[in-house]
Amino acid sequence: MHSQSYENFFYSAADGLKLHARIYGKTHEGTLPVICLAGLTRNAADFHELAISLSTDPAHPRQIVAFDYRGRGRSAYDKNWKNYDPLVEAGDVLAGLVALDIGHGAFIGTSRGGLIIMILAAMRPGVLKAAILNDIGPVVQAEGLMQIRAYLERAPKPSSFEDAIAISKRVNGEAFSALSHADWERMIRAIYRDENGVPVPDFDPALLNTLAGIDLDKPLPELWPQFEGLADIPVMAIRGANSQLFSAETLMEMARRHPGLTALTVEGQGHAPLLETGDLPSDIKRFLLKAERRA
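RESULT FIELD:
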């Protein structure tokens, strides 16, 4: 293993684009590999601390695979921005699992990653043995998506990482009152790449074109049929108490439709909770062990 605790894995998508994933730890008999899927503009670095915790757990170590979607992190940018689409990205994830010879696993999806999990439930249900949906459900609140789009379209360009932290605190501090300065710094280091000390967003700017065409004056499509595709596997749903993208009402309805659902609300965090903070790593480990006993 490399000094940074993970190995870089590169593979080709169906259309030949070079894609990347981080691999933490090794496969262990009796434990499910965990496949981590990030949010819209985010990348595998979001899961770094959680992946280390899961892969090096003294009692139940497991392999973690965190994917960079096309146009994010170390994956190549697509010349056609219209391919920055959850259906295409779901296919890319499946191609990566084939390249890694992983037949199934437990999936953790933050925001867009959770939508991709629901798509996979329709495309290839056998690949899913358990699912953790981080601040996402079948109903996406237009208000929250509007805020994300407005911020990304007008996001200031920080001159340093400390500047980036200050900007993020100013914009998101109220929603994320539970975070320490170290949490903010870790999050910023995952969002931006370092170019000679200057933070640069680690995604293809053309990705924002996908948001521009969404008409937020119309109701957004709901994914209840896709969510119900998860009915036969253990599901954990995590909601930031201050989230404006994933409502408490949607979480309650998810629990009604999936009676075995494990629901968690994270106080002092918004969209989306940092999975390495507070009790979340322990909660996730307990959920995975329960899922494995069921499998």
